[in-house]
Amino acid sequence: MLKNNPLFLALDFPDGDKAINFLQAHNLYQVPVKVGMELYYQEGPSIIGRLKDQGHPIFLDLKLHDIPNTVKKAMKGMASLGVDVINVHAAGGKEMINAAQQGLEEGTPTGEKKPKLLAVTQLTSTSSQVLMDELLISKSMEETVSHYAKLSRDAGADGVVCSVHEADWIHTLCGDDFMTVTPGIRLKGNAIDDQIRIATPEEARKRGADAIVIGRSITNSQDPKAAYAEAKKEWEDEKRTTSSQSFI
Ligand code: C5P
Question: Mean of the pLDDT values across residues 224-233?
């Protein structure tokens, strides 16, 4: 695994045993994983400890979005969990993103590495139509995502979560060191489920994404081990590192 360009396996399971059993059953030892709301809200911090004990680098995807003081305090507490990456919603604004980073800095135990802070621009399940009709955002998806990315960078985030289709121009706008992590990844021929702005691991590599997140294309596969290997091969082929920062 190239440390700078991880493929995070989304562990969207209802409980910790199911998640750990899945990893063991398919020999996915020490692979980078993403823990989201489904698993974390059932298991709490103990699931992070269990996964860390087994050597998995961890992206804790809880997408915080609240008043700056609450987000800062929550991040301060979570900084001691020892995860590698954590995130907020960029829609919370500059002050909230900055407060999140301050909380992480204050809460990271001395001598340990501060988790990278990412901000979610727009969910990859959001279409341009939803942006307009439901969220009443009259700007285009491209303008909205660009604005949120610049806002996140100015607020001190280490990078953003965005769709593959946005990764290259976010690097142009915000610099190569600003990390782009892209979910909405599907292997060729797989169902898109609730995602809208999707792409393959190969497209993600070509668009310069720094890391990818894949869940159901692997976890719902008949042969998860083979699906993981296929995704990893596509992703790492002729791999390059856009960002000079290290995720893990
Ligand atoms: O199964 P699938 O590959 O669609 O899973 C994608 C994962 O990435 C889910 O855990 C989802 O919560 C997360 N995610 C996303 N879009 C974002 C941020 C996170 O799909 N913008």
Answer: 97
**Which fold does the domain 7-239 belong to in CATH?**
TIM Barrel (3.20.20)
Give me the residue label for tokens 């993600």: 204
d(C-alpha 82, C-alpha 79), whole Å: 6
The residue with tokens 């960002």 is 243
Domains of the chain, by residue range, sit at 7-239
Tell me if 161 CB under 6 Å of ligand 1: yes
Length of the chain: 248
Quick one: pLDDT band at residue 111, thresholds 50, 70, 90? Answer: very high
Nearest to 217 by CA among 199, 237, 238: 199
Please report the pLDDT score of residue 191 as a whole number: 82
**Confidence bin at 60 (pLDDT 50/70/90):** very high
- What single DSSP character describes residue 108? S
CB 205 within 8 A of CB 181: no
Task: Report which of 175, 180, 183, 168 is spatially closest to residue 154, judged by C-alpha positions.
Answer: 175
- Among 131, 234, 118, 133, CA closest to 185: 234
Mutate to test the pocket of ligand 1, among 22, 59, 61 (most ligand atoms within 8 A of CB): 61
Name, in order, each residue with C-beta under 8 angstroms of 103's C-beta and a sequence gap of 6 or more: 71, 72, 73, 74, 75, 76, 79
110 CA from centroid of ligand 1 (Å): 32
For residues 211-230, average pLDDT: 97
Please give the angle made by the CA atoms of 85, 2 and 48, to the nearest 5 degrees.
35
